[in-house]
Amino acid sequence: MPDLLLELFSEEIPARMQRCAAEDLKKLVTDALVERGFLYEGAQAFATPRRLALNIVGLPVKGEDVREERKGPRVGSPDAAVQGFLKGAGLASIDQAKIESDPKKGEFYVAVIEKPGRATQDVLAEILPAIVKSFPWPKSMRWGAASKEPGSLRWVRPLHSIVCTFGPETEEPEIVRFEVDGIQSGDVTYGHRFMAPEPIRVKRFEDYMQSLERASVVLDSDRRKDMILHDAKDLAFAQGLELVEDEGLLEEVAGLVEWPVVLMGSFDEAFLDIPPEAIRTTIRANQKCFVLRDPATGKLANRFLLTSNLIAKDGGKTIVGGNERVVRARLSDANFFWKTDQQVKLEDRLEKLKTIVFHEKLGTQYERVERIAALAKELAPIVGADPALAERAARLAKADLVTEMVGEFPELQGLMGRYYAMLQGEHPSVAAAIEEHYKPLGPSDRVPTDPVSVAVALADKIDTLVGFWAIDEKPTGSKDPYALRRAALGVIRLVIDNERRMPLANQTKKALFGLDAMERGMSVKDRGNLPADLLSFFADRLKVYLRDQGARHDLIDAVFALEGQDDLLMIVRRVEALGRFLDTEDGKNLLAGYRRAANILRIEEKKDGRAYDEAPDLQIVNDQGQIEEKALAVILHQAKQEAAAAIESEEFEGAMRALSRLRQPVDAFFDKVTVNAEDPGLRANRLRLLNDIREATRTVADFSKIEG
Q1: What DSSP string runs through 490-551?
Q2: 433: nearest Cα among 486, 510, 469, 379
Q3: d(CA 83, CA 111)
Q4: pLDDT bucket at 311, cuts 50 / 70 / 90
Q5: Could you tell me which residues come within 8 angstroms of residue 252 by beta carbon, excluding any fewer than 6 positions away?
Q6: Partners of 357 in the β-ladder
Q7: pLDDT tens for residues 127-182?
Q8: Which domains, and CATH codes, for the chain?
Q9: Pairing relation of β-strands 174-175 and 159-167?
Q10: Are 634 and 621 in contact (CB under 8 A)?
Q11: Helix 568-582 crosses helix 553-560 at what angle (to 10 degrees)?
Q12: Burial (CB count <10 Å: 0-12, 13-18, 19+), residue 453
């Protein structure tokens, strides 16, 4: 079956856009084809710094023929109805319609409409210009004289040519003819900008890929990545060194070159006195180069690897020399920042934080530091930290924001603070907390374990959440400009991974007090509602977290339905214990018994217009009840006491075991006892007994929320 080759050749496409753009192109074209009934066997999209390419295999030569029968008016209908039918069906006269008979409706006209399938080339010529013109680039531009015209083409960089061919493997493919803003589709592309800039005539995808390879263009970005990675490792190994791998940088560099050539440069060993993270950040940010380390010591080497886009005649000496000059200049700057910053202690920088606005409604960074320090001191005993160390760490945590190094490389905040704290003799836990209080930054990021780090990290995130809740800047839909969902998940992971007990309601109230919300324009009513609203947000984030861990969403809802659930660690343990219990036969049968009791209660309470939430009268049970009823009442009383005691001591497994004793008496009760007895008093008491079953299960969870 025929294949499609499409290439859009332009000036440089930013590396960060390439992979997404290739996938967008594939989706837009294949979706448009499928929507028109053109199915295919497979599709691949590619990107280089100068081109987007798409190959679709297994397309039909033309679409399927369509035959449609359209029912018309009855024979003898008014002329207006007949004329409307003819126009809608595309018939010249009623003689072109056939007449069919229906026993009930009589004779009526039927139009048989046959449409031959459209040629695939015609459909492609129709859909591709529209896709090119409306392509979803994050940023795009107009160029040349045509840019003055309204509706002119926008592209990420000037679009130069379009290749579009279609045809079977056994025949010469044809050019799919169309035009976009004066650019005619054809079968000519271009090779490497410097090493093979001449035009290349191509046919189908295999020929196209081979032609580009001969013209020094590697089309597949993943292959370019592999080439860079292997060459980099080989070069490092040859020098007795090891590559410091960086997937993000590798992806970016592969998007900067069409023919990767890895070269090695060096810098003065004296620069190795700079913190290794600063060296790596400097070389990565400014020159897109990889750093190397000594595998024996793990320390950085005074070497770096760059990726050139061509095979230089001098073996790359000029290219390496140019990069070495830039790296030397950048490392000189970093060295200056490093030495200059050491001349001022972190605490002496705090005054400058008064000039940095954190948020216009939440004050300066200095004010925020004061709040975080107070909250970290409060949290310290809860997480097992020294309050004085936690307060000290929190007070210094943001000081590196006003250092020269962080001013130049904001991504080093926290880390540079740790270095400066160690140099000025701070306690190791204080230094660690300065770096780690930002963590975890995402679901895969490491969670701090040092108690001081945990206290400051919790204080930082809780202050952020309470602050933005107080000024009504909550996440909405997919928008979360202040990363509040990430902050809440950070709190959850800090508490759970470190197995710390921390009732959230108290901490949010303390943070709110520190914020001094009344002076921020909040009403008393708003201030009172904020903790509950924020706890609801935490509940939603915890549900997401637990679902990602494999927990059932209904069990999470069942535990959260109980009042006063704000201890994250205990919620998780209760959900886990409930899940294990419901996986047993006792758990499944008790759930079935609960549902039976709850359904009867719901029906009878609705019918009677009242709730049967009083305790059952045990005297009535003893005097009038059946054996099964008496047994249930006794075991219910015992199970409720045992479960409540187990919950009190946080023995959730014990609470489940206590409830499991209800299985047999509940089954026997429903088998032998008629709830709706003729005696009104006995009936009401039995309904109260059913309510007691419901209340017994509520010691661990709201069973009404459990599915399945």
Answers
A1: HHHHHHHHTT---BHHHHHHHHHHHHTGGGGT--HHHHHHHHHHHHHHHHHHHHHHHHHTT-
A2: 379
A3: 13
A4: very high
A5: 15, 16, 288
A6: 364
A7: 999 999 999 999 999 988 877 888 889 999 999 999 999 998 778 899 999 999 99
A8: 3-61+119-214 (3.30.70), 66-115 (no CATH), 221-341 (no CATH), 347-550 (1.10.3210), 578-705 (1.10.730.10)
A9: antiparallel
A10: no
A11: 120
A12: buried
Exposed e or buried b for every residue in 641-677, given b needs 16+ CB within 10 A?
A: ebbeebbeeebbebbbbbbbbbbbbbbbbbeebebeb
Place of tokens 């409830």: 659
Segment (H or E) for 358: strand 357-359
- Please provide the size of the chain in residues: 708
* Alpha helices by DSSP H, 260-412: 276-287, 317-341, 365-383, 387-396, 404-408
Taking residue 448's Cβ as centre, other Cβ atoms within 10 Å add up to 25
Cα 6 from Cα 185, distance rounded (Å): 9
pTM summary value:
0.81
Provide the H-helix boundaries in 200-239: 205-214, 221-238
**Rounded CA separation 522/643 (Å):** 42
Assigned token pair, 72? 């018309």
Rounded CA-CA distance 675/628 in Å is 12
- Distance from C-alpha of 708 to C-alpha of 700, rounded to nearest angstrom: 18
